[in-house]
Structure formats: structure tokens, C-alpha cells
Amino acid sequence: MIFKEKVLVTGGCGYIGSHTCLYLIENGYEPIIVDNLCNSNTEVLNRIKSIVGYKPIFYELDVRDENALDEVFCTHDIKSVIHFAGLKAVGESVEKPDLYYNNNIGSTNTLLKVMKKHNVKNIIFSSSATVYGNPKRVPIYENDPIGEVTNPYAETKVKIEFLLQDLANHDKTMNIGILRYFNPIGAHKSGLMGENPKGIPNNLMPYVTQVAIGLRDHLNVFGNDYDTRDGTCIRDYIHVCDLARGHVLTLNKLHQNSGLVIYNLGTSIGTTVLELVNAFEKANNIIIKKEFAPRRAGDIAECYANCDKAYKEIGFKTEFNIVDCCRDSWNWQKKNPNGFN
Ligand code: NAD
Ligand code: UDP
Fold first, then answer.
1. Which pTM value belongs to this model?
2. How many helices (H) and strands (E) does the chain have?
3. pLDDT surpasses 90 at 213
4. What is the DSSP string of 131-167?
5. Position 341 confidence tier, pLDDT thresholds 50, 70, 90
6. Given 16, 58, 62, 294, which is the most exposed site by the fewest CB atoms within 10 A?
7. Are 303 and 140 in contact (CB under 8 A)?
């Protein structure tokens, strides 16, 4: 295949990174993946090949390993970086804050150092709606306050955002895209790629699909006494393929010497836990056994995005709705009862 540019994709074997690699390839960008496989599997590379006919170049390394990373930049003429690599389990981050600071912030520091050495100016960073903490209003806009967060995972995202903002202020030749993802769900329509959680899923959709396949007995709905239309929490669920496309649009924007850009990537639609479960049941004709359980510590009642800025500046608009998400998540789970294992 002939590509116009090499893009380093850290964490490219993971859920969002692997789907983004598909869109990069389809849009003429060559992903060079680095991943330490702490939460992923190289089988995903074969799946990418089955879908787009090209198996990305892959290096098994930890982004904190400066020499190994430097070697990749010496071998390839990297022009841009998409930085997905990181740990993401909120509960685990409370238990092991040192691990989260070390992995998430440490890998970003090393990456930025090696980028500087090789004069690479474009980077997209995976941030999260979690940086808004408990939002003062919904929908949430990009210039709403960030930083009042309650767990180490969110703290690492905030600190990296501030670092990148300072860097952009200091070096006007840098082009930096900070993407604040809302709740990614869904899977590629082929059913060949999807989310592959290790152990008991923390997130709602993988838990629902594991109940559907019989791996879990029932869904615990955490809290039905919130001040929302049905008492359960509201989130903004975005199809992972829409999210992936958002990265390519942002990369195109960085190539216009954008400087620093920050976008919410969501659907602008809030969905309750019960609405999501209902949508899943209808889309797939499956009943999900559920029980109401106490609120989960640290949960906020409502979180959904205003995405006008991403629409105006990069033309980002979602193509998939919640029913598509539910169908594709189930298609992936059904075809891969044990994920990539
Ligand atoms: P994921 O765990 O599937 O992917 C992350 C990848 O990074 C994994 O393949 C893992 O092996 C790799 N990795 C972790 N630390 C590494 C290191 N030090 N060196 C090399 N590789 C390393 O997670 P995901 O859902 O694809 O998330 C990607 C990014 O998006 C993460 O930064 C995450 O915090 C962020 N994010 C995710 C969500 C979500 O709900 N999935 C929401 C908001 C933000
Ligand atoms: N949730 C739930 N049962 C589960 C997992 C999640 O009721 O087994 C709820 C959770 O309390 C929240 C919503 O589903 O209200 C989305 O949770 P998730 O962890 O997927 O996303 P986050 O809360 O991090 O935005």
C-alpha cells in the first residue's frame, strides 16, 4: 500500500487505537503501532489485515522506554503521533495511584522528549470527559472548567492536558489535539474487532454483552434514585468508529498548523442506563436480566457533551446511533465470546 505519512500510534493494539488504525489506513496514513500489550493482544493486527488488507507495523515496547522508542523514530520518518497508551480503570487507579502516575504521565513525558529530539510537531492525546469532574451544567462545553476531579486516573488526564497546553503556549510550532472522549462503545461492523476487557468489566456496555452471552448472571444497575428521568445515570455513548474517524479529522486539522485544539467527542445525546439496556434488548431481541444496586462511589448523575466545536472546526458528526452501537457490540461479543483470546 502507498501511504502519504507515517503516524506513530501508541496503544494502537487497544480498543480505540485499533479502530483508529483502520481509519488511518483507509485515509492514507500509515500507522506504526507501539504497545506493551498490558491490556491488549496482537491478534488485533491480523483482524485489521482482514478488514483493510494491510497489517500494520508493530513494536512491542513500553512508551516509557526511551531507548526503544527512540529506535522507532530513528527507523521511521514519523510526522505525527496519536497517544492512546495509558491505563484507564478508575477503581484500580484509586488502589494504585503510583502506577497510574508513573504509566500515564511517565509515558507522555518520554514520548514528548523523543518527539522533540526528532522534531515531530503533531500530537493527538486521548483525554476524557472525566477531566470535567462533576460538571456544573450539561451539555458540557470545552471551555467549561476542568480539574476538580476525584480519582488518580482523571488526575493524570488533567495533568497531561495542562502539560500539553503549556507546551503549546511555549512552542508555537507544535500542533496539539486534545480529544475529550465521552463513553465509547460499539465495535467494527465486521465483528472482527471490539472491546476486550480483562476480568470483570467496569464499564456498562461490556458488562451488558457479557450478561447477554451468559458469562455474567445479571447486570447490577448502580443507583436508581438519581435526579434524572428514570433515576439512573445519564452518559453520552459514542460509537468507537465515530470516535476513530474523529481522530483522522483532527489529524487533518493539525496539518493546517492549527496550534492547540481541544474537542469534545461525543454525540451530544444523553442516555440513561435503563435506556441503554432497553435499546440493547430491542436491537438484539435479547432480555438482559438486571437488578437495582446501590450507587457506585464517585458516579455523577449526568454527563453529556456539546459537540458543536468539533462540528464547526473539523466537520465531526456522528454517523451511528445507540441502536447501531448495541447491535455492533453484541455482534462482536457473539462472534468472539472470549474476546481475542
Ligand atoms: P485500551 O486499554 O484498550 O488501550 C490502551 C492500550 O495502551 C493498550 O493496548 C495497552 O496495552 C497500552 N498501554 C498502556 N500503557 C502502555 C505503556 N506504558 N506503553 C505502551 N503501551 C501501553 O484502552 P482504550 O479504551 O482503547 O483507551 C485508549 C485511551 O483512551 C486511553 O488513554 C484511555 O485513558 C482513553 N480513554 C478511554 C475511554 C474509554 O472509555 N475506553 C474514555 C476516555 C478516554
Ligand atoms: N453502570 C451500571 N452497572 C455496571 C456498570 C456501569 O449500572 O455494571 C452504570 C454506571 O453507574 C454509570 C453508567 O453505567 O452510571 C456508565 O458507566 P461506565 O463505567 O460505563 O462509564 P462512566 O461512568 O465511567 O462514564
1. 0.99
2. 12, 13
3. yes
4. GG-S-SSSSBPTTS-----SSHHHHHHHHHHHHHHHH
5. confident
6. 294
7. yes
Residue 267 CA to ligand 2 centre (angstroms): 17
* Helix, coil or strand: residue 56: coil
How far CA 198 is from CA of 67, 165, 173, 336, in Å, comes to 29, 33, 40, 14
In the annotation, is 207 catalytic? no
Which atom belonging to ligand 2 lies closest to the Cα atom of 219? 8
339 Rama sector, left if φ>0, alpha if ψ -120 to 50, beta otherwise? left
Residue nearest to atom 4 of ligand 2 (CA): 204
* Position 323, amino acid: V
- Check if the beta carbon of residue 301 is closer than 8 Å to that of residue 227: yes
Q: What is the pLDDT of residues 116-151, one digit of tens each?
A: 999 999 999 999 999 999 999 999 999 999 999 999
Cα–ligand 1 centroid distance for 260 (angstroms): 22
* Pocket probe mutation, ligand 2, options 222, 224, 226, max atoms within 8 Å of Cβ: 222
Angle at which helices 273-284 and 204-213 pack, to 10 degrees? 40
Alpha-carbon gap, residue 93 to 309, rounded angstroms: 31
4-18 pLDDT, tens digit per residue, is 999 999 999 999 999
243 close to 19: Cβ distance less than 8 angstroms? yes
**Grid cell 456496555 in the structure block, residue:** 205
**C-alpha closest to that of 265 among 229, 217, 213, 313:** 313
- What's the gap between Cα 280 and its chain centre? 21
| Grid cell locating 240 | 468507537
Measured from the alpha carbon of residue 126, the closest ligand is: 1
What's at 86, amino acid-wise?
G
Average pLDDT over residues 285-294: 98
Task: Tell me how far the alpha carbon of residue 28 lies from the centroid of ligand 1, in angstroms.
Answer: 24
Best residue among 235, 278, 322, 329 to mutate for probing ligand 2, ranked by most atoms within 8 Å of CB: 235
Q: Hey, whose CA ends up nearest to atom 19 of ligand 2? A: 203
Is there an atom of ligand 1 within 6 Å of 151 CB? no
State the closest ligand 2 atom to the C-alpha of 182, by its place in the atom list counted from 1.
25
